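User: Fold this; tokens only.

Assistant: Input:
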Amino acid sequence: MVKYIGPSLDATFAALADPTRRAIVARLGEADPARGVTVGDLAEPFDISPPAISKHLRVLERAGMLTQQRDGRIRRCRLDPKPINEVSKWIEHHQQFWNHQLDALADFMEQSSQEKPNK
């Protein structure tokens, strides 16, 4: 069985629960990882205030999904895929478990339907 660190997984799911943060993660995923994306560029498509963007970025940073680096007055953000990879492993583990359970149920139902009661 695979072991997972609960709080980090919880933080990742909580961070991804918001559609704005998911959109930010998507934008970061498309960016050049060497250069990163400026906060201004990240905020551009959203109709929310700069302080609100900063709050979203702090949530992503606390979840370990985002790193920020100052370059003078400009902050550059980069995606850290490790937390998303952990979520992916968690989902894969549970998907395998449930696929096995559902296959066993299907086999049982098929066997049960083939056995006819004696009259």
